[in-house]
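Lab meeting minutes (informal)
Scribe: AK
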Amino acid sequence: MTANNEQYKSAKADLLRSPLPTPHWGPQSGSAFTIRAVTTIHATPDTVLDSLLDTDRYPAWNNFVPKVDLLNSSDGRLGPDVLFTEHVDMFGQGKPSGLVKMKLLMTTLNEKDEHNGVKSYEAVWLGKAYPAWALRSERVHAISSDSSGLTTYDVWETFSGPLALLVRLFVGKTLVKRFKQWNEELKAYTETHAHT
């Protein structure tokens, strides 16, 4: 399927100075901020979710996080209560050089039945790389379908705590680029593999 509307060709990404609340930490203030990216994908929410949770496929599409180590998964996939390490390439080239390791915990995977029989999902990853008093981060992945059958993938990560200001100053603009890249690469991969 090809998009006939310009808005579906690329993801939109922003750094929001008014942070979005997250399920675990709720509303944040002070130096808190949110990185958010949204795109529309020509695939079902189930297909998008499957691509997100199957980290073995990340090297095929994800140049921002080309590798994930699952630390306690029994089936080799992300799911609630799975602790994992993202190998992050802040250059977005999917290369071993420049990788940063970030430890996260997938806290929840919520499923909702929509009125049209299509499911929507919310997956939440809680940052575990730093003590909560220094830096709190929480990433929310919202996957939903509209009446035309397109899936909206909306991901945001809210950072707060004393180190959030440094994150925003030193890598905020880069994170906006990488979140946009994540969405565009997930879109391209999922659309290519949705019907195979």
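Next up, CB showed the second protein from the same session:
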Amino acid sequence: MSSTQAQAGESKPAPTKMWGGRFTGGLDPLMEAYNESLSYDRQFYAQDIDGSIAWARANKNVGNLTEDELNEIDRGFHAVRKEWDTDSFQIRPGDEDIHTANERRLGEITGPAIAGKLHTGRSRNDQVATDLRLWVRAKLQEIQEHLQSLLQTIISRADDEIDFIMPGYTHLQRAQPVRWSHWLLSYGFFFAADFKRMKNVMDDLNVCPLGSGGLSGNVFGVDRVQIGRDLHFKGLCWNSMNAVSDRDFLLETMSWGSRFMGHVSRIATDLCIYSSQESGFVKLSDAYSTGSSIMPQKKNPDALELLRGKSGQMHGLLAGFTATMNSLPSCYNKDMQEGTSSVLSTIHLLSTSIQILTGVLSTLSIYPQNMRKALEPSMLATELADYLVKKGVPFRETHHISGRVVALAEKEGKGMDELRVEDFRAVDARFGDDVKSCFDHEAAVEKRTAKGGTAKESVREQIRVLKELLRTGEMPAWSVE
């Protein structure tokens, strides 16, 4: 027998344990540490107190507590909250989680005769489910505000910098000219979709499990509707077994985070490329860059690289807890405790990442002259094809003709705009004297006037759509007048 096993066998569970009555031996100290969650679920102290006060009120309403006892519990929890707020709460041996710690301290303030009635009809199963929903709801509201700031930053820059034209890329190859604002807004609409999806996540989690007990419900007839209203939930968990075992709202939060961070990683990669010396389109501020320990000339886009790295961590958190929940039997199982640490990491990662990205975008320097230098005549090959389409030539044929012009320019070692009109006509006689008017990047951009395009007025409409989303919370289906 190990020394820790011997130690465990010689002691009984601490009197503050909520479950100690049927046990005659204490926990192995290693198991005590393995089992505890107070080191991280202490962050739910305010939500745990709010839930407990609502629960005490419900018990008073069915006669399990007197008015005086309810007032004492309210007074006691006010003192407990103040201790947590001021970082003066004293954690004691046996405080294995936030529920145990708060109730133990309440008993020291009000006396065990009153505090001992608090848990009547309640289980830690519905208690932790309530705490989690309350905490995640509050944190998602904060993240939603950060996301609004990110969108506002994108909108403001797109509005102010609408005149600048840059290469648009597909397959990392220069493709067609677009407005810098159009590129910014492409991610603005990714994040707008994330904003809308977050509302669905918040609606789904905003239901009250408290009053479900361990799994079978409450025997004292507490008013669960009133409990839900007291805690500002919008509805109830309608099945007590489901209520204590449901962690889909955590998975949905992590899934939202995984998709959002996927978008973050993409804009981070674009900006890494655009900030390289080969592109020179943008420069990160010193606040979001670091240097090299050996190469003094380096300015590394560490903020962007870390954002990409954090996206991988977010995907891992989702995959990990998905695997934890897979094939669990019904109702509460201790495996679910792992979701607490996962969602804490998720919220911290998301909150900091959104703020870092907002900081990067709000302080970014752009170099429009370098963007314009990167515009090549070959990027206007589609303009050449469209030129012939307007003369009645089928696009599939004009595409082929334009490709032959590209090949000719490459063979001659010239830009397409440097070819003579005669050279174009040698490829196809339908080219007119005005063919070289196709080689105007500004004009090419301004032709994309259909909704969603890169013409200035189309971009301005996109800006109005995103402003409307921030103003009303809804994205217009068609247009904004």
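CB comment: Strands lie at 165-170, 173-179, 207-208, 235-236, 282-283, 365-366.
No objections, moving on.
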